[in-house]
Amino acid sequence: MGLTSTAPHLLRAARGEIVDRPPVWMMRQAGRYMKAYRDLREKYPSFRDRSEIPEVAIEVSLQPWKAFQPDGVILFSDIVTPLPGLGIDMDIAEGKGPIIHAPIRTQAQVDALRPLEPEAALPFIKTILGALRQEVGDKSTVLGFVGAPWTLAAYAVEGKGSKTYSVIKNLAFSDPTILHQLLTKLADAIAIYARYQIDSGAQVVQMFDSWAGQLSPQDYDTFALPYQKRVFQQIKQTHPDTPLILLVSGSAGVLERMGQSGADIVTVDWTVDMADARARLGKQMKVQGNLDPGVLYGSKDFIRDRIIDTVRKAGNWGHILNLGHGVLPDTPEENVAFFFETAKQLNALV
What's this model's pTM, rounded to 2 decimal places? Predict the structure, then answer.
């Protein structure tokens, strides 16, 4: 990287350096709340087209960068994007999310899965990340992201999103051997995929274990945590200097466990007070978050007060300002702009 001072702001904070204000980006920052994205969606109605045709995905990834200049520019993609490369056929239905055409339920299906070869299966990822790095230079940090083994297994086994997770829990609690084999194969594939993203230009990688908060703590220790560790350990073996972020939705009950995963940074959702999260995770763990996305419906004074409250509670080290989950589709675009403007002025406000 050359001299540390030339590294972008978010990357420096993610490495644990002292910075003058917390860096800021938003999960789902490219998307439906932006008119530019909705216009593009009319031209490319298929999510897979938008995320897998390089020039379209590059344009979508850069829309919020051009509009708001966040400190992080994240690859526009989906956590299920690598699944076809393992032999799991999928599509992404507009407004409904991933659909797995032949859900994985049997030993034979697990045995038939193949190792991921990203250069063959996902060549567009290298093109997109390379272009993003070139476009933002040292002005912003390029983030890659992957799904975690438990969450990808839940999609693969359920076949689609779920409210009860009954199919995968049935498998977990009645035939765990099959599930553990699936989780192992997914973990190894995700590690390969994350390394490929880093080699292609990602400077930080976030792993989404979106559904691990649906597990009891003891089941999290069995089906989520060991496989998070497996992914992070493999990435660190080859890319020890790339900061890794872990997100679990509904994570209040497993926050300390997230800190044991090997992640460098834990995303805190809005159901946990940031001061409590800091105390629970310990002084050495860096954090990301945790504004309620709904705050962005409020007045500018309200938004500013909540940002300042979160930043004060997080303290002046190892914090990346973000929402506790993705920005909501009907959020006023001007409030998103105000969120970023306020975040950029925090050294004067706090």
Answer: 0.97
